[in-house]
Amino acid sequence: MTESITSPWDYAPAPESRDVAGLRPSYRMFVDGEFVDGSGQSLTSVNPATEETLAEVAGASAADVDRAVTAARAAFESTWATMPGSERAKYLFRIARLIQERGRELAVLETLDNGKPVKESRDTDVPTAAAHFFHHAGWADKLDHAGYGANPRPLGVAGQVIPWNFPLLMLAWKIAPALACGNTVVLKPAETTPLTALVFAEICQQAGLPAGVVNILPGAGDIGAELVAHPGVDKVAFTGSTEVGKSIQHRLAGTATRLTLELGGKAANIVFDDAPLDQAVEGVVNGGFFNQGHVCCAGSRLLVQESIAEELLDRLRTRVSALRVGDPLDKNTDVGAINSAEQLSRITELADTGEAEGARRWTSPCPLPSQGYFFAPTVFSEVHQSMRVAGEEVFGPVLSVLTFRTPEEAVTKANNTPYGLSAGIWTEKGSRILWAAQRVRAGVVWANTFNRFDPTAPFGGYQESGFGREGGRAGLEAYLDV
Amino acid sequence: MPTPPPALPGDLAEATRDDSTLKRFLHGLPGVDRVGLEQRAADLATRSIKKDSKLWAIDTAIGMIDLTTLEGADTAGKIGALAAKARRPDPDRPDTPPVAALCVYPDLAATAAEALNGSGVGVASVATAFPAGRSSSRVKLAEVELAVSAGADEVDVVIDRGAFLAGRYGQVHDEIREVKAACGRAHLKVILETGELATYDNVRRACWLALLAGADFVKTSTGKVSPAATLPVTHLMLGAVRDWRDRTGLSRGVKPAGGIRTTKDAVRYLVAVHEVAGRQWLSPELFRFGASGLLNDLLMQRRTQLDGHYSGPDYVAVDQ
User: Fold this and answer.
1) Beta-sheet pairing, A466-467 with A360-363
2) Which CATH number belongs to the domain containing residue B32 in this structure?
3) What value of ipTM does the predicted structure carry?
4) Could you list the residue range(s) of the whole structural domain that residue A104 is in?
């Protein structure tokens, strides 16, 4: 389908102002209520859209981990655990409001550091992060009513390690419930995206949060390993790759440390032949390409019923061609930059195996910027279960399309994965939604929508996608001694 | 010359054979998920259109306006004033494009045709017992004939919503067919009155019904019922004409009408046209705005874009 008449309407650039990020040449780590120099190797944060250096960030050492855990322990024992829930709630509400007030700054900084489109950091990451603090602030004085008996106790010091795909949002998912339940926190942001976490530390100061309740330690994987294995840590929460998750679980086996893991996924988005087609296409695009596909619950496996496969694919390619890929700071950009050169080469390698294994590769004809780490949205059709692109998590804007004939086959294929984080079901038939949702082994099942996040809804996985829930009443269990 | 009835592909021609095949066809269309449609419309509404793109959008939107007056109190004098404005919306800035058409009641179509003679601005007339559509076929057809003979280039007709909601699709179809024949050379815009159709599924069915019956345009509303045009409904209709083009190769237009008052609104609709239907639809041949107040806001914004500062409502002509 070609457009014969063209208009001059290529949207003029609409860049968000970079200045509002308040970017500084260097950032320090946050321990015991103070910004301090780290004694570890410092990090360099790079803007993945331009490859320019954004800032030098203090890196933590093993000794810093020890200091932070000690500070968190002291804060836990002297103030936070003994403070009435209604008082803790005030701090959380204050933090939530400050996130909103500094929302634009956080959104632009997140986009600079991570490469995601500012449309998403502005409309999803920052508001949802604030929502998690509001939600958990409300729980802080109602834990008696959470279903875990009277007066449930906090665990102590939580060591939390988060990924680079939603830096501020993952921080909120981790810190808000921990604090609401009376725990104190040492959090390590991802090596490539530490900046918003350090602005969050400023917000903690602004909110008057007692020293030591929240500590932020930038660092690489080795610091994460130090933190999770520290004997002063009572609870570990990790979001990241299944590989690292397994090593943490191995490390903590036989210890008293509590553990929750939120790991990889290869979610099936199942489109039945009676689906609302246009909205299913939107949901498939969202599932595959939201946040450049850097989403652990991404709907990266499209399972479509054979009778509509061709029509759906046609519509899908047309729709994906319209995605605007480019400058993440432009308010009209739909798909931004891949977070790092390393991730880009991993995506490129996996996509090449798809082609080598005989899947049909289609790439969006969108223009790509000459600088920065970009990958054009890609759809593989004629994919079979045995191919690597069908089984492995790509964590990039790559969608694999498989077909099915019967609902049973759809469920079998959807469940044929070591993961089990999320799934999507598209049909106009309510009974089929319930039938499929009961059979799909996934922690989150979306019906006629995808990638909808809400602090009231528990999120978490089956099998190698991890265990434990974040959000909702169920999510409190991970931070209470029950 | 009268346009011959379009040659539809076999399955579509078959769909209109009788009442029951028509019903099967319309009810076999894919469903519309309300949440998803509204979310998509809201997402696209966040597009940020600036500078040259905004100026282009303003001029394009001006050229797509069916400048409308559909009041019991309309007079020949008001039609004359609006016709002058339709030709030259901003006399201080003669490079401002004229609007697409002037939309009036059938008894004033002759007045409008005379006032617009030779200007290139079309005359659109409502017909078929607008806005309720409650009359006999005979009366409705007579009204179409009145409008066309008075010089209307475009006829905006309403469908019989009562018949549609009762499932008498054949009756609605045949009525549109007859109206289309009575239109002769005039373009036919079929008003679905989406505010009365209750569900998006019904809007999609009504779109296809109108297209099968030969509509040149599908139009959301009369402007007399609330809600009138909305972004989600327009998204849905743009999707229908896009699908129609894919199935038949024929390009049909969409006209949201009622409730679109600001430049910001208009730009959002144009973004939807651009990204849902495609660039080809960014033309008055295939997209119109049914509006009265919108033009003045577009003119003020146009001045602002060119002058670099706001002027004010006193610098554009009021429509009274």
Assistant:
1) unpaired
2) 3.20.20.70
3) 0.93
4) 18-263+462-481
